[in-house]
Structures are given as structure tokens and as C-alpha cells.
Amino acid sequence: MRAGSGVWALLRMQWRTTWLWLLLSPALLAALVVAIASGVKDLYGEETERMIYAETMGASPAQITMNGRGYDLNVLGGIAAYEVGFMGQLLLPLVGVLLAVRLTRAPESNGVLDLLTSTRVHRTAVPAAAFMSLVISWAVFKLGCWAGLVMLGYPATGSAGYSLAMAGFGLAWSGVGLLTAQVASTPRAANGLGLLLALAGYLTRMIVDSQDWPGVWISPMSWVVEVRPWNDLRWPPLLSLSLLAAGGAAAAILGTANRDLGSGLLPARLGRPGAGPLLSRPAGLAWRSTRGAVLGWLLGSVIWVALLGLMTDDFTSTIAANPNLLAALGGRADDLAPQIGLLLASVMATAAGLTVTLRIASEESRARLGLLLSGRINRWGWWLGWNGLALFVTALVLMLSAATLGICQWWATGDPAALGDDLAAGFAFLAPALAMVGFGSLLIGVAPQLGFLSWGFPIWTLVVGMLAEILQLPGWARRFSPLDWVGNLPGETADGAAVLLLATSAAVAVLTGGYALDRRDLLRG
């Protein structure tokens, strides 16, 4: 069989089976970028306001560390690009990697690729067709961004350059995802490796920019910033992003031709010949299955809040010098750093808990749950053990992060009260974080196929916490964030009734999910 045969057939199949993901993901990302640009236009419509922004935010070490180096901050386009900032540098790689793995490693893991390659379809056609699908998907994102920005009144040329840079950035990380799908032997490992590389790239960019080193070429996170589309577009960074995307796709094609079906270029580590006593309990098995991801979320959260805590003074002075931004954020300048830190800690703690909870659906769909339940463990015992660990790791990540934030703030400001304030706020935010994890448990218990919807709450919580004022979200939309119910902490008094309600809803959701699982048939097994 000729290498690459069946590309067009696979391309059609990918769009017939995953068209929703390939269109919805870029559409939502484009809508977020356009919404931020709309808010920026309302906030910084006057030239004097833009000059204040450039002098404060553009010179702030804390903002440079988080968002990268700011260029053309005296025009609306440059400010909009800077406000997309770190969320764009993290969300686009996330979507790029997940889409790439979904199109390549996932069909191989569930046996679909084995059936396809038994016909006139060559294995190398899979990454080739996936790359073509991803190019189309990111082109949709580019067109959506460009059209939205032009409709808002942004310059057409600058909008085209910015949209091209962002689409190229997303496609570059899709190329990375295509490669990690060949290196790792499971979709979960491929996603984890891709996201680890994205985090490493972001941290590298943070270090280079915070120290004002000249090595902007080291990380792809800097390449997208260095395009500078709103004044004098630079083509070398765009070319670098294109080469990364094409190189990842080419390496993926080469890799899939030189490995066994179902394996990865890196062999999986062999397990022990016998199980230890920990694996005889549901919670122990849950920990063994998800510990890598949980520790990753814990490490990421602690690093984030530590940096924010150490930069508290810089955040305070920067926001206090920018009246428009201070009014838009709706809070005191000295509360901003801990508020952002606890928001990120709450979202990451929720993600750690959902990582454990959603693994339940994977165990059921692969028929492993049925095998486990054929022994001495009943459904309720297994459900409570697994979800108990999910709730525990949520609390662990959040409270350790709150303690780290408080200690770093204490170190930076010399105020020991910061530790107590951050711990109290973290404890108050524990209820909404547990409620979001409980919602995931409820979905898994009722309909495991819908488990992915549980990510909606933490993602929306992050959007509300970071962009609510810039996007000018109405009050009813903000209430879909469980953290909004508790209050803007620290700096406000926590709503005790909301904390009690959310904590109760978490318990009720977990128990209801267990009841639903106990009453229905398993998907497989």
C-alpha cells in the first residue's frame, strides 16, 4: 500500500465525526478575542487613556511577566492583544493539543484506526489528514477574529496580521499535539505531555521577559508577541510558527510509520508483577490512576500563586496608577494580586478534582469498572471512595495554594495578616470548588457521555474572574460562576449562606450521582 493513501477519505471522516469540535472550538476562541477587543475599545477610546495604559501596564514587571512584552500599547489593537495576554498564551495551546490528539491518538486507542488500516488506508494518512483538518479549523478562527475586529472598527490590516499570528500560534501547538500523540501511547498521556510542553514554554517566556533578557526566540510563547501586527508586522516570528506546525506534522507522519499500532515512540513503563495493598481500595486505585495529573495541577497552582504573591507590590502600584483599569476591575488595588491568585487556585483545584472524577467515565467506557464490580466491592463503596479522593485533592490543591500565596505575600509586603486573609478566603472558596467537582460527579453518575460538560463551570469561572469587567458581563451571566456567589475575596466578607448552600449542593450532587449509577446499567462490562 502506498504511503499516505486514504488521506481524503480520512479527511471527510474526521469532519463527519468531529465537525462540532473542529468548528465550535475556534468559534468560541474567536468570540472571546473579539469580546475582549470590544471591552478595550470602550475602556480606552481616548488617546490620553491609552497613553496612561502604555506608561503603567506596559512598564509593569508583573504585567510583563504574565502577559509578555507589550508593543504598540498606544493604539487599541496593541492594548487588545495585551489584554488577551496570558489567557491566549494558555488557551490556544490547550485547544491546539486537545484537537490534535482527538484526531489521531484517540481513534487509535479505541480501535477505530485498526479497522481503517485494514482497508486501503495507510497509517501515515491519519496525521496527514488531521493536519489538514486543523489547518481548516484554525483558518475558521482567523476569519472569525478578523471579521469581528473589523466590525468593531479596528484597522483591517492590523486585524489581519493579528488574526494570522494567533491562528499560526494555535496551529503550531496543534503540530506539537500531533507529535505528542505519536510519542505517548495513550490519549491521556499525549494530552498531558503536550500541556506540559505548553506550561514549560510559558514559564520559559515568563523568566526571559521578567529578566528582560534578549532571548525571545527561545519560546513559541514569545514568537506570537514578537509579530507586532499593529504597527510594523514582522514575518520571521510568523515563519517560525509555521515551521513549528509543519515540523510537528512531518515528525508525526514519520513517527507513525516507524512504530507499532497502539504503542508510542516512548515505550510504556512496565508495572509491578503484583498489586500493593493500596490498589485493593477504590481510593487507592483512583490515586494510582490520576496522581500524575493531580500533582501537575498542584505544582502549576503553587507556582502561579507564588509568583503573584511575590509581585503584590508591583500589581498594587500599577493598578493604582491606572484609574480606568482600577474602576474597571471594581476593587481596591492592593486586593488585586491575591484575588487573581485565589481565582486561579480555585480553578486549578477544581481541575484537579475533575481529573479524578472524569476518570470514572473512562473506567466505565473501557469495561474495567464492570470487572472491578464483579468482585467484593459494590457500586456505592467504589463510588464514594473514588469521589472522596476527588473532593480531597480539590481541597488539598486549594488550601496549599492559599497558604503559599499568603506566605509569599507576607514575604513581599511584610504584613503577616496576609497569610490569615488568604487562608480564610481559600477556605471560603472551597465550597464553590467542591460544588463544581460535585456537578461533574452528578453528570458521570447520570450520563457518563456528558462528563465533558463539567469543564464549563471552571472555564466560565476563569472568564468571569479575569474578564468580567472588560467584557461588561451582566450580573446574571456572572452568577453562573460559583465563586461570584461567595464574593470577591479577599477584600470583601464572604457570603456565609452561599458557602453553606454550595457545600450542601456538592454533597447532594455526589450522592445523587451515586444513586443514579446504582440504578442504571453500565455502558460496558
TrEMBL record:
Transmembrane regions listed in the UniProt entry: 79-104, 125-154, 160-181, 188-208, 238-257, 294-312, 340-361, 382-412, 424-447, 459-477, 497-517
Q: Which UniProt keyword terms apply here? A: Membrane, Transmembrane, Transmembrane helix
Q: Does the keyword Transmembrane helix apply?
A: yes
Protein's name in the database: Uncharacterized protein
